[in-house]
Design a protein that fits this description.
Layout (H helix, E strand, L loop, with lengths): L27 E2 L17 E3 L17 E3 L6 H16 L2 H10 L14 E5 L3 H10 L5 E6 L7 E2 L3 H4 L5 E4 L13 H6 L4 E5 L8 H9 L3 E5 L19 E3 L8 H20 L12
Parallel strand pairs: 1-2, 2-3, 4-5, 4-7, 5-6, 7-8, 8-9, 9-10
Helix pairs in contact: 1-3
Length: 286
């Protein structure tokens, strides 16, 4: 976080904030999952700064009158690199290659092209823009979709018209009531047979049962960093579903992303101390 502002100190969150002698002085918190349950024990709290872009895990735990800020932008590069890997891993048959290596089988792989693929980015914000920049090197054709239409970006309600021509759907949607199950049976059926779903957003945005049916029918393939439920139980049918690669919600967790998230938190603390406007203030779950 760098040097604290004059007159401020940075300390680890106490195990028992209620018993902490300093709890009446805490104004700014950078929480993790466990700390999120303790925020109401801090009467002077003014700002909660997450180190994640998604805030659904904490938005309902922030006391009234306290400003919640996300780490939007800090993990863009890491997330975009994972999405690029996901497209390449699918196109270049990474799962099959790994299985053949374990079995010591030398057999030709059926590979696909990323060049020329029509990639629909669902939830085109800062991460989507970072994905687009990286896919430009592969000459992929990008279709941008967001909550509301703007120049060069389609509105989410246009999906039924856009999905039938999408070779790849990259889902970067946050978890909100509006996005829950948005990628369901209807959306998956609208994708062309052999299409690829990449989910680096939140698991709740995809109907898991519908995805399983589409995978087993061979209608789509998928690469998922997030699932519903999560963590994925050992006996869950997603583990053995055909045409699927799963990673354990790790796409944005790289050393560079962590450095950027902590640096953002330090900058936000200095802004708060100086009475300057904060960045990434969360409104309506975004």
């Amino acid at each position: 976080m760098g040097e604290p502002p004059a007159g401020w100190s940075i300390a680890p969150f106490p195990d028992d904030p209620v018993a902490s002698p300093d709890r009446d002085e805490v104004e700014f918190v950078v929480p993790d999952w466990q700390i999120a349950r303790e925020l109401h024990a801090l009467p002077a709290l003014k700002v909660v700064q997450t180190r994640s872009a998604g805030v659904e895990w904490i938005v309902g735990r922030v006391p009234d009158g306290v400003t919640l800020c996300s780490a939007r932008g800090a993990r863009d590069a890491a997330m975009a690199e994972w999405v690029a890997w996901a497209l390449l891993a699918d196109a270049k048959a990474a799962r099959t290659a790994a299985e053949q290596q374990v079995a010591r089988v030398w057999e030709h792989l059926d590979l696909r092209d990323v060049e020329g693929a029509r990639v629909l980015i669902l939830g085109h914000g800062s991460i989507g823009a970072a994905v687009e920049r990286r896919l430009a090197a592969f000459d992929a054709r990008i279709v941008r979709v967001a909550r509301r239409a703007r120049d060069g970006v389609h509105a989410v309600d246009e999906l039924p018209c856009l999905l039938p021509s999408a070779d790849v759907v990259v889902n970067l949607l946050p978890a909100t009531e509006e996005t829950r199950g948005l990628v369901g049976a209807e959306a998956l059926a609208a994708m062309p047979r052999g299409g690829l779903l990449v989910n680096a957003g939140r698991g709740s945005t995809v109907d898991t049962d519908a995805l399983l049916r589409a995978l087993h029918a061979g209608h789509v393939r998928a690469v998922l960093d997030v699932t519903e439920p999560e963590p994925l139980p050992a006996d869950h049918p997603l583990w053995s579903a055909p045409g699927l690669i799963v990673t354990p919600h790790s796409a944005g967790d790289t050393p560079g992303a962590e450095r950027k998230a902590w640096a953002l938190a330090g900058d936000q603390l200095r802004r708060h101390a100086a009475g300057e406007p904060l960045r990434n203030v969360v409104s309506g779950g975004y």
